[in-house]
Amino acid sequence: MGDSLLTVEGLTHRYGDRVALDQVGFQVAKGEIFGLLGPNGGGKTTLFRILSTLVAPREGSVRMFGMDVVRDRGEIRRRIGVVFQAPSLDRKLTVLENLRHQGHLYNLRGQELQSRIDVLLARFGMVDRKGDLVETLSGGQRRRVELAKGLLHKPQVLLLDEPSTGLDPRVRRELSDYLEWMRGEDGMTILLTTHLMEEADRCDRIAILDRGRLVALSTPQQLKEEIGGDVISVETRQPKLLAEQIGKRFGGEPRVLDGSVRVERADGHKFIAELVEAFPGQIDAISVHKPTLEDVFIRLTGHQFEGEQT
User: Fold this and answer.
1) Per residue in 215-250, pLDDT tens?
2) Would the pTM count as exceeding 0.70?
3) Within 13 Å of residue 179, how many CA atoms lie on the same side as its CB?
4) What residues contact residue 115 under an 8 Å CB cut-off, 6+ apart?
5) Could you tell me if 199 and 192 are in contact, meaning their C-beta atoms sit under 8 angstroms apart?
């Protein structure tokens, strides 16, 4: 996996009686695009706040660049770039003014600052808009400026909180291409939180969080391969009864989720014919698809992936 830049061990965090993180642990390697995937209440926002040094962990440890995120917070902040889900640009300032103010926070001045701004504006295709007020930009253009802002001080690690929120599919793909390019061009290590399956699918590895627990950690492809077949969804008027009958007749572990019966099976298209023949009149509709990360989540947790992280 290469050299580890980030090590999380036994991380536990509570808000009163509610456990937001429960013994979470993982490593992120240098040059990796690493995703934290989770639904509403999964714990990924709390984890992001700890990684970005905004919140001190209650239990466990987080080390970045070999340093402790609490004891060495100042030095770590100089080495990371953070792009939050909530916009941080001043809408009443121009693109150039926003970037200059960001540079001043890191003691960048004069020609060095201007040179870095010029490079980033060119990289993100925003040279022609540098004199425009941020409030006149599209959502995708603002996201590019947010990225430029986070990269201005040349961080070793870029932390992105729900980077695709509010972006249309075309801009999401564009953002993904930017991240791949930054990893290849600068050797950047990137960690992002997401509730979007397609965004998680493009990461090198993902950690799946649910109700504060780490339920899976691997590459998207390996996680999907663990299902070992196709996913079949059956619409029926008596899902619980049909699930029991399918289990008795064909084995496996059919599940009832949101009123449908879900079955994991190799050669799903062939199995559909067997189901229809075995249970005439009981099946209203049936479909089959290759495993997705949502299917992985359902298999690991027993419930559906719901909502956006807040």
Assistant:
1) 999 999 999 999 888 999 999 999 999 999 999 999
2) yes
3) 28
4) none
5) yes
